[in-house]
Amino acid sequence: MANGQWYPPEWPDRIRALADGTLTPVSPKRAATVLLLKDTEAGPAVHMLRRRASMAFAGGAYAYPGGGVDPRDDDTRIRWAGPPRASWAERLGVDEAGAQAIVCAAVRETYEEAGVLLAGPDPDSVVGDTTGDDWEADRAALVAREQSFAEFLHRRGLVLRSDLLGAWARWITPEFESRRYDTWFFAAVLPAGQRTRNASTEADRTVWIRPAEAAAGYDRGELLMMPPTIAALRELLPYGTAAEALAAAAARDLTPVQATARLRDGEIVLSWPGHEEFTKHVPSSSAPADATGGGRA
Question: Looking at the record, which segments are called Disordered (predicted)?
């Protein structure tokens, strides 16, 4: 029985076009996504959303809150708690401005899409309930890009709690995909007093689900997911609490995962190094000799 691996039918043609030089890869945009966790009686659960079927990219697939970096967040000195920007820059493999923008994206997108805000009035606290009308107006302004996240934090007098995030993984979309992202994955624990909601216009469903349950749904072909999404679920399986998973993030390898596509015995073999379960064999009498790329959440 087929599993729920997302695989666009146009990929083989795009792989051939990339190899023969008729397709020019687009540059990947920086992005961030967050594995938001909470404890339940049955173990940790992760917050997931289902992308609307009408979405041009990965429609119908389950994913985590996330989105692109806003360049406006890379050069504004915001109030910051947790590891300094230099430490984040080293961890993420970028400069300090880029690190701030990526961390801001992770926190902003979690607020935009799940209504959860990893920030507080001081370095040792987080805001409580964010479901009031004034908070919703601010969230809508962020979604519409009417204000940057740095501007929002400054006006609210909030400190970004980077210490509540742990860098988990990094995946890059294949070169043959028309929409490309260089995505950093983060883990975070749902702050006490806050609650999630479906605040995203891109999702038609949200759910708290145990990683083992979600992975089983994928294996049965019931839940559609991109490789980075199901990979993260399997990586969460060993941990008995949300805090254990967050603590484990510090030791995780952030080497980017990039796909390769090769011709072997008359077929295209598409694979993600280190993640053999995602390998695809596509019959092709005119497959390219070699093409490379990566994966995205």
Answer: 278-297
